[in-house]
Design goal:
Order of helices and strands: EEEHHHHEHEHEHEHEHEHEHEEEHEE
Strand content: 15-25%
CATH topology of the largest domain: TIM Barrel
CATH class of the largest domain: Alpha Beta
Oligomer: single chain
CATH architecture of the largest domain: Alpha-Beta Barrel
Number of domains: 2
Number of helices: 12
Largest sheet: 10 strands, mixed
Radius of gyration: 20 Å
Shape: globular
Number of strands: 15
Distance between the termini: 45 Å
Length: 386
Amino acid sequence: MKITGMTTYPVAPRWLFLRIDTDEGIVGWGEPALEGRIRTVAAAVDELSELLIGTDPLRIEASWQLLTKGGFYRGGPILASAVAGIDQALWDIAGKFHGVPVHDLLGGAVRDRVRMYSWIGGDRSIQVAEEAAQKVADGFTAVKMNASAQMRPIDTPEAVDRVVQRVAKVREMLGPSRDVAIDFHGRVSTPMARRLLPLLEPFQPMFVEEPILPEHAANLASVVACTTIPIATGERLYSRWDFRAAFESGIAVAQPDISHAGGISEVRRIAALAEMHDVFMAPHCPLGPVALAACLQVDFTIPNLLIQEQSLGIHYNGLGTDLLDYLVDPSVFAYHDGWVDRPRAPGLGVDLDEKAIVTAAAWGREHEHEWRTPVWWHEDGGLAEW
């Protein structure tokens, strides 16, 4: 079997689908998305296709090594995202070729279902308790929320109190039997993180995500040491080498994104290293159906899974598009009391509606639609972290 073609489809809200064709008619799908840089990643996929056309798609590890190490310049979010989507599609082909779900090829399932969490609130929403109540009504037992919008490097007691009160409202609504995770989104400076985290301890968050920017990794150990709250990070780390310092700092939860961190092959290796450090996995996935399907295939095979992010109803999914819109059978992601059952279909376990994808990609090109990272400013005119 040989790879005969690789085609990318950018679609709203901010996804990029990849189709890999073979001479035996088996098609694999991946999602090499990088939010705000879709065209750049699509160009990287096109360049990398020169290395893969005509090769055996079942030699997944050989392809991964070639794609990541075959060039002099390596790593980074663009290349790692391009490789991630290609890797997903190759595993999809392998599963379909053998007639089994990918998790069977990875050693078989270690669990029967996976716990999912859902997002509430935007950056400035004050209706967080009401939104949490809706997620509970939808069956979820865990939610994640942003702590705040932009914050000054050293902010006021009033700003600190706003953060605390937002979390307090959600905790009161959820009660003690459900979980809330809090995303700092890298918007908080190291000294502000040290101030905020102890104040949030009474609400016992499941974790606080990205309390500081990844480029300040040297400060991460001191942030971990200042609180009893489990610290999570990893959506902006792209390889096992990137994660090494985070593991050594004492984080509790690793959050590699399967569409940014080298795909199924690399996320599996990151999970193994996490297990060595008693760190648990909560893969980052605010993206589309292929990315979530790939996450679940890994989730069912790793012993140190905590929980899985998913994007159904997330605030990014505008323009009338959502997680299930490009699936022939949306029931593969049917959530039961906040859990999803093990997928049984071959490959990644999802059947994509290619006609809908092609139509959506054409609409996006016609309307020049592409999601961009918001740009925020402080009150003094300086750039703020989004």
